[in-house]
Amino acid sequence: MATKEEAVIPLVKQGVYGILNTTLTSDDTMWFDEMSGDLGDAGRTVYLAIKARAASNDPKAPLVPMNMTGRDVRLVGHDAQGVFKSVGLATKIVDATAGLVEMTLPRALYQAVGAYQNAEFEIYEKQGNTKVSSVRVGFEVYNNHAHMTTGESEMYVDEFDKLKLKLEAATADEIDKLNQKFGDLIAQVSIAKNNADALKQLLATWTQNIADKSVALLNGDNQFTGKNNSFTYPVSGFMTGITNKIYTVNDPNQDVNDINKLRNLPEATTTVDYYSNNGTLNNPMGSNYFAVETRKITRDTAFQTITNMNLVDGETKTRTVQAMTSQPVFGNWYTTAKWTPWRTLVPYLDKQFTVGNVAPMYRIDGNLVHIKGDLTPAKTLPNKDVTTAYTMFDNLPFDFANAQVRIQVGSGLTTFALFTSGKHMEMQKYSSGGQLVPINEGGYIGMSGVFSLEN
User: Fold this and answer.
1) pLDDT digit string (tens) for 364-403?
2) SS3 (DSSP) at 372
3) Which of 178, 187, 13 is nearest to 86 (CA)?
4) Integer distance in angstroms from the first to the last C-alpha of the chain?
5) What are the structural domains of the chain?
6) Across the strands, what pairs with 105?
7) pLDDT tens-digit profile of 137-151?
8) C-alpha to C-alpha distance for 424 and 399, rounded to whole angstroms
9) CA distances from 355 to 112, 339, 351, 392, 398 (A)
C-alpha cells in the first residue's frame, strides 16, 4: 500500500494541471492529493499534463508535452480492500498536442476507506490498445462519517459496462467484433477472474439469443409477438402507430377534462382514446361515440382534437389545455370541420308557413350551413310595417353566427331579407317595386343561402 509518506515523488502543477512525468521508474509513486476524496464522493475532476523527454535516452533532457493524438488515458488500481477498479471512459483530451487531459472520477473509486494499495495512469494507443507508458500515483479515501454506504467495495470496470450495453443491442454481424473487445479487456484485468467468467457466459447467452431470434436487434427487422408490449419511456423516431385506449359502457365513466390523466402523460407523446357509449363527462359532442387525440407538447401544454364520425356525418373540434401543473386552463372547443347530408327543416318550421314545392333542407359543411327550399304562407300576412318580422324557423339544430342578412329575389322581382340569430331565422321587408306588399296565402317564397355558424 502506497501511503502519503511512502510516495516520495511530489506533485508538480502546471496551472490547474498536475504533471504526469512518464519518465518515472516503476518503483516511483507520485502522491496525487487532488484525487483523494471522501467515502461516497462522485464527479471529482482531475487535470493532467502528460510529459515525456525530448530525447528519451538522455535523463538531462527537458520534459516536453507528450502528443496524445490517437492516444487515451485510463486509471487502474486496487483500493484499500484490494478490489480492482478501472476508469477508461471518463477521459477528455483537452489539447492533444499539449498533452492536456481531464478525467472525471466515478463514485465506484470511493467505496473503501484508506489509501489505494496501488494505482497508475496508463497511456495507451487507441488503435490496438497498446500501452505506451504508465505513471504510478497514490491517493486515499477518507471516512468523514457523513456518507452511509451499503455493502462492500465492488469491482468496477466502466469499459465492461459499456460493452455489456452494446452487446444487448448488437446485431449478429457485430458479435465477433464485440467478442474480440471482451477478449482484450479480459486479458487486461485477468486478476478479476469471476467477472471475466460472467462476461464470457453473458456473451455466450446473447449469441444464442440472437441466433434464436429471442431478442430485438438494433439494425434488424423485429417482430414482437406478445399481446402486450409496453415501453416505460417515450419512443423516439418514426412510428406507424400511437397509443390507443377504448372505453365502453362496461368501463367506469371517463372525463374528457381529467387533468390527472393529462398530467401523467410523458412529454412529446400522442394518445388516442375512443369512447363508445361510455357516458363520458364533459363531452362537447352531440354523440356518445367519439375519439379524443391528445398531443402533449410540454409538461404544461397539450393540444386535443375530438372527432365524431359515422357513415354520413361527423364533426371535429380542437382545443388547447395549458398550465397543467399549476392551475389548469381548458380552452374552448372550436369546430374545425363538420359535415352532414341534406336534412329536413320541416320540424323547425313556424306555423305561419307550410312546405312549398321544394321541402326546406339544410346541410352543414364545416363552419357553414347551406339552406334551400321554398315555403308558402298558411294565410296572407299583411306586411304593412317595415319593422315587422315573420319567423320562418325556430329552435334549429345549429347556431347561426350573429347578425347575418341575405337578400332573396323572387318572381316578379319581389325581394325580402333573411335575418338569422342563434337558432332562429326570420324574413323582413317583403317588397315589390320598392314598396311593401302583402305576403299572399298560397304564394311561394323561395330561399337559398350559405350562413356562418358559431363554433
Assistant:
1) 988 899 999 999 999 999 999 988 999 999 999 999 998 8
2) strand
3) 187
4) 81
5) 13-150 (2.60.40.3350), 158-211 (no CATH), 243-338 (no CATH), 343-452 (2.60.40.2460)
6) 44
7) 999 999 876 555 555
8) 8
9) 96, 25, 10, 11, 20
